[in-house]
Amino acid sequence: MPKLTKPNGAKEERPASHSQLPGKPVSASMSEMVEAVLPNDANALGNMLGGRVMHFIDIAGALAAHRHSNSHVVTASVDYLDFRFPISVGEIIVLKSSVNRVFRTSMEVGVKVFSENILTGERKHTSSAYVTFVAIDLNRQPHEVPPLILETEDDRRRFREAGERRRVRLNMRHKRPLSDA
Known about the structure:
Elements: E1 3-5, E2 11-13, E3 24-25, E4 31-36, H1 50-69, E5 72-83, E6 92-102, E7 106-116, E8 123-136, E9 148-149, H2 153-173
Parallel strand pairs: 3-9
Antiparallel strand pairs: 1-2, 4-6, 5-8, 6-7, 7-8
């Protein structure tokens, strides 16, 4: 990857891209969403409905995608979603999202979900998801997304892992063996 020098002298990496758009760092589009979990959000056991968590994941992921692309986005796929722990009525749900990788018109966004106990402040990682969004123009047609500037080792790791998830997803879509990628 080409190295760029920032004004403070630090080096950053920009993945190879054919885009003429200026790149944006991962940090520029990171988003956080916070909501109170109310009885209307819960099942009969007093835990937040999985579908409601999924709804919030989609919104939180779209926030990061909007910020990176400066455009409207549509959800194209959800590669992975797990539910590790329930979120109870009376807790706070915290969703953190960031762009993991940019392709030509699409972006993978990682979303981490936490529950927060309002009395103790304890946070628990409850869910994770990888959501792909496509940037669209005013005619609802896909358009090019700015490249992603990788500043940290964590950015580079998430970038690599997103590429592998995309390879698996596309192979499954086209029903090719993974070795044919």
